[in-house]
Design a protein that fits this description.
The structure holds three protein chains of three kinds.
Chain A (H helix, E strand, L loop, with lengths): L1 H31 L6 H16 L7 H4 L10 H23 L4 H21 L1 H4 L13 H6 L7 H25 L1 H11 L2 H5 L4 H27 L9 H15 L4 H25 L8 H19 L9 H4 L3
Helix pairs in contact in A: 1-8, 1-9, 1-11, 1-12, 1-13, 2-4, 2-5, 2-11, 2-12, 4-11, 9-11, 12-13, 12-14, 13-14
Chain B lengths: L1 H28 L6 H22 L14 H31 L4 H23 L14 E2 L5 E2 L1 H23 L1 H11 L1 H6 L4 H26 L6 H16 L4 H18 L8 H15 L12
Helix pairs in contact in B: 1-5, 1-6, 1-8, 1-9, 1-10, 2-3, 2-4, 2-8, 2-9, 3-4, 3-8, 5-6, 5-8, 9-10, 9-11, 10-11
Chain C lengths: L7 E12 L2 E12 L3 E5 L6 H8 L5 E8 L2 E2 L5 H4 L4 E4 L11 H8 L8 H10 L1 H4 L11 H13 L5 E5 L7 H17 L3 E5 L3 H7 L2 E6 L2 E7 H6 L1 H7 L3
Parallel strand pairs in C: 3-8, 3-9, 6-7, 7-8
Antiparallel strand pairs in C: 1-2, 1-4, 4-5, 9-10
Helix pairs in contact in C: 3-6, 6-7
Chain lengths: 325, 304, 241
């Protein structure tokens, strides 16, 4: 029974983390029309930043196996904050050459940055231990709670609370932002860049703000992932897991709708986790190596199916949001 | 260094072959085909199916020609691989892109669909062939030692010849034939092409076939030059787009130069840093071009 | 004024059309006889270009009828209409910029199965300026020459009728003169009937056999070019004088 419960808590925590990624993508795509297909890069930057900021520099025997550029041994919240800041910085850097150009340049640049980031973490062993990645990433208040009698396998519930709290905070902040004059300009840019330009809005600045804001949230999501999984390797932050799944979540839930972004994340994560289990049951053992790719195929087909049959997603864009005043 | 330049030209020729198809598609269907790299992979795997399974089952086992590591069976396999990949591209257009086009969605939605198509293609490849890498032939890979420290494999000469024969063939088609000119006209000005009686949908179908077939050829050549694996095409996507942007989107001549430049720079960069950074080098070149001259070195047919 | 013609070539009867939900033409009726130059003038936003686009099938007619050469063409798409002998020269983007002049003309002949060389030579004779630049990409030419390429492209199918959408728009005054001369030449030498929309109403009427004044999606006044030029009210309202 507790096994199922802790599993559920872990499942929900991951879904919540993905909901944060999906909300962030909604800022980019749903509200501003920025085509970011390098989410994995911001995800990775956030995760690694927070891991490096919160862990101590390896010492003793461990130092022979683990290399990292720095280890600041800071608290969890500092790590999360740093993750957001660094991820936002990366976005700012790639926004510069691309946001003035046609929209698909940003897409290509984001693929580029995410692949580059993965390559760097994979190859530069001095930075964050190369392909082996970092393990034993600190969890907030874990020792403190266990000392006070919490069974270790209940920790996921506590972490779930943190994730949901942050998710709700981000949701509320975005809902406010998107209904403000600032949010209306973003949506006007999404519809047609020329119109806001003619009324004197600096389209580039607004797009940059949106890109950086979304990336900051993605970085926070990455940090939450790192502290949840406690171990990160470059191979986690692939275009599939880090980018594509988030896109399917947002498109399924309904881009331009923050509730949809969250709903989509929970549904797709349920399909993703559930199908792993189902496929293991159905697929013969000799094909078990192929099993993960059946899942990938399903998710890919799901996205095509939504695009063709219900492009507005399950919830669609909220009416009162899209009204331009 | 001379050796790196030579291997860069070979890699660049493969990139060019993929990039001209990509830029042609860009001009005609007006979105970035993010499945282009995976079309390369698909072509490479269909050729693998031919050389490793279908032809041997028919009693045709490849015997290497002269110093090459492969023979006629490999060369003949280009045709079905290019044909099937071309048809797969047309199928993707009919099933997905055309339906979206008819609904007049923004081109960027088609790019998202292309991303989904890319993942579907790759997952099918993973499911059918697994994650391991393969070689087309077990034949010995001879190496020639040339002056200036250049080493060249006879296989690479074939890669070069095939790539350029196809690129030249495509250019001749675009420049000399009525259909080729109509394709360029359509990329230039779709509305005027329509009022001139050019059948847009037929041209789009043709472009997908050409793009798919050339991508397949590029994939096979890449497989001959290194090895066949499921991620091979995805990793080429960045150099392909970088070559297209460098040359100016929609500009077929630009893609040619862009592909060569990228191949050489990527290879030469390995003298200074780990070869695994090659895609990052492509990315940095692309960013530099975007900063300095966003319309590409040769200007695009539809810049910004 | 149908001295060089023989009867109706184009008949537009009570045509209503528009874009999406928005009705632009509220019932336009006009005709063009063989051999005529007919101008459609009127204020901005009157729907002049929409008339031409509706005739050519680029904008679907909601009601009414378009008859060309005795046959209804109302519901036909442009690629069918062009086969029946009407060519259209859009106001902007009316050339293939990266294609050479010669290739532009070839694309004009895209639907021809027979030898188009003789017609191409006739066009080069009519527009010697572009004949010297056959291998130049059309996008590199001056505005006037581009317009010649656009006319030339449209004439490659040896159409009975040309639809010109503001042929003088955006050109320098001297070039405007040249373009109107060219329009007259096409009409006289090649015997092509012309329906054109023009902002430059006075110049257009001077070379036209007849004209229509279009206001608010309806044709209000019809008359010979001379009559309309002499009409004081029209002069005050649309001819700037």
């Amino acid at each position: 029974m507790t096994g199922i419960l802790t599993f559920t808590a872990g499942f929900l925590a991951m879904a919540g983390i993905f909901a944060i990624m999906s909300l962030a993508l909604n800022v980019h795509w749903g509200y501003t029309g920025l085509f970011n297909i390098g989410i994995a890069g911001f995800f990775a930057v956030g995760a690694y930043t927070s891991a490096l900021v919160t862990s101590p520099m390896p010492a003793g025997v461990q130092a022979q196996y683990v290399e990292q550029a720095f280890g600041l041994d800071q608290p969890f919240l500092v790590g999360v904050l740093a993750a957001g800041i660094v991820s936002g910085l990366v976005a700012w850097i790639i926004g510069f050459p691309t946001l003035r150009l046609r929209e698909d340049y940003l897409a290509i640049a984001t693929i580029g940055i995410s692949e580059t980031i993965r390559l760097i973490f994979n190859n530069a062993r001095w930075l964050a231990n190369g392909p082996q990645g970092l393990v034993g990433i600190k969890q907030p208040l874990r020792e403190w709670l266990i000392e006070r009698g919490m069974p270790p396998n209940f920790y996921n519930f506590f972490y779930l609370v943190i994730v949901i709290l942050l998710m709700v905070l981000i949701y509320l902040a975005l809902e406010r932002g998107i209904r403000s004059p600032w949010g209306r300009v973003l949506r006007a840019i999404r519809e047609d860049e020329v119109v806001p330009e003619t009324v004197g809005k600096d389209v580039f600045r607004f797009k940059m703000q949106s890109l950086v804001l979304g990336a900051v949230i993605m970085g926070i999501g990455g940090a939450l992932y790192a502290h949840f999984a406690r171990a990160i390797q470059p191979s986690v932050f692939t275009p599939l897991f880090g980018t594509f799944v988030v896109w399917v979540m947002l498109i399924l839930g309904g881009s331009g709708n923050n509730k949809g972004a969250i709903l989509g994340a929970f549904i797709v994560w349920a399909i993703w986790s559930g199908s792993a289990y189902l496929i293991r049951q159905v697929v013969p053992v000799e094909f078990s190596a192929q099993a993960p790719y059946i899942r990938l195929l399903l998710i890919g087909l799901l996205l095509l199916f939504i695009l063709l049959t219900r492009p507005q997603g399950l919830l669609g864009e909220e009416k009162e949001v899209s009204r331009l005043t | 260094m001379a050796n790196l330049v030579v291997s860069g030209i070979i890699l660049g020729s493969i990139i060019t072959l993929g990039a001209v198809g990509l830029t042609l598609l860009y001009g005609i269907v007006n979105f970035g085909n993010f499945a282009h790299g995976d079309m390369m992979t698909l072509g490479a795997y269909i050729a693998l199916l031919m050389t490793a399974t279908i032809f041997p089952a028919l009693g045709l086992v490849d015997t290497p020609i002269g110093p090459l590591s492969f023979g006629w069976v490999m060369l003949v396999s280009f045709l079905p691989a290019m044909g099937v990949t071309g048809l797969a591209a047309i199928a993707a257009d009919r099933l997905v892109y055309r339906r979206l086009r008819e609904r007049r969605v923004r081109p960027i939605m088609l790019a998202i669909a292309a991303l989904a198509v890319a993942f579907v293609m790759r997952s099918v490849i993973y499911i059918l062939w697994g994650a391991d890498f393969h070689f087309y032939s077990q034949g010995l890979r001879t190496t020639w030692k040339l002056p200036l420290g250049i080493t060249l494999r006879p296989d690479q000469v074939v890669v070069l010849v095939v790539a350029w024969a196809m690129v030249v063939g495509l250019y001749t088609f675009l420049q000399r034939t009525k259909t080729g000119k109509a394709l360029r006209a359509l990329a230039d000005n779709p509305d005027l092409a329509r009022v001139s009686g050019i059948a847009t949908e037929r041209m789009i179908t043709l472009t997908w076939f050409i793009g798919g077939a050339m991508a397949a050829a590029a994939g096979i050549l890449l497989g001959i030059d290194s090895q066949v694996r499921p991620e091979m095409g995805w990793l080429m996507l960045l150099p392909l787009f970088a070559a297209v942007i460098l040359g100016g989107i929609g500009n077929a001549y630009g893609a040619l130069a862009g592909g060569l430049i990228l191949g050489v720079v990527q290879q030469v960069s390995t003298a200074f840093m780990s070869p695994s950074y090659k895609p990052a080098v492509a990315f940095i070149i692309m960013i530099l071009v975007l900063l300095v001259r966003p319309q590409g070195i040769f200007g695009g047919s539809k810049s910004s | 004024m149908t001295e060089n013609g023989s009867g109706r070539l184009l008949e537009v009867a009570d045509v209503v059309s528009g874009y999406g939900e928005m009705e632009i033409l509220h019932g336009v009726t006009l005709h063009v006889d063989r051999g005529e130059i007919v101008s459609l003038i009127g204020p901005n936003g009157a729907g002049k270009s929409t008339v031409i686009k509706t005739i050519f099938g680029l904008v679907p007619a909601w009601s009414g009828q378009v008859v060309f050469d005795g046959e209804p063409i109302t519901a036909l798409p442009p690629e069918q209409i062009v086969r029946r002998g009407i060519s259209y020269v859009p106001q902007v983007e009316n050339i293939f910029p990266s294609l050479t002049v010669e290739e532009n003309l070839e694309m004009g002949a895209y639907l021809r199965e027979d030898d188009f060389r003789p017609q191409m030579e006739r066009i080069y004779q009519m527009f010697p300026e572009i004949a010297d630049r056959r291998r130049t990409p059309a996008g590199k030419l001056s505005g006037g020459m581009r317009q010649m390429v656009a006319f030339g492209r449209a004439m490659m199918l040896e159409p009975q009728m040309l639809l010109l959408d503001e042929p003088s728009a955006g050109l320098a005054p001297l070039v405007v003169e040249l373009i109107f001369e060219t329009v007259v030449n096409i009409n006289r030498q090649a015997g092509v009937t012309i329906l054109m929309v023009e902002q430059n109403a006075r110049k257009a009427l001077e070379i036209s056999h007849r004209g229509y004044v279009l206001v608010d999606g309806r044709n209000r006044v019809e008359g010979t070019g001379r009559e309309l030029l002499a009409n004081e009210e029209i002069g005050r309202l649309f001819l700037g004088g």
